[in-house]
Amino acid sequence: MATAYHNLSDYDFNSVPNAENMRFGIVVSEWNNNITGPLLEGAISTLKKHGAKDKNILVQTVPGSFELTFGSAQMIKSGKVDAVIAIGCVVRGDTPHFDYVCAGTTQGIAQLNAEGDIPVIYGLITT
Prior knowledge:
alpha/beta, Rossmann fold, 3 helices, 36% helix, globular, LS/RS_sf, LS, transferase, EC 2.5.1.78
C-alpha cells in the first residue's frame, strides 16, 4: 500500500482498513511541541476517522526525537498495541547535533521494524 500513493492528494479514505479492532501506540516528542502537538492531534483524528476507539489509542511522550526509539520499544514490549506511530521534529542548527539525532532516530526505528512483528511508523519531521 505504501507504494500505491506517492501524492497525498490521491489519498482514498475507503482504501484504508477499518481500525475499530486495532490498538495504536503513539510516541511523541515533547521537544518542538509547536510542531509535534498538531501532528499528534492529526494522527489521533485520522485514526478515529478510520474507526479507532479512544481506549485503543495510547499516547506516550518522550523528551526529544532521539528517545522515540526507546519509547516505541517500550510501547511494543507492553503488548498493548498492534502498531506504533513515532512523531518527532528536529530543527537544523549550526552544530552536527542535527545529523546525530536524525541518524540515530532513523536507525533505531528501522531496527525496531527489521527485528520486530509490530510496525513502527516513522514520523520524524526535519527542517
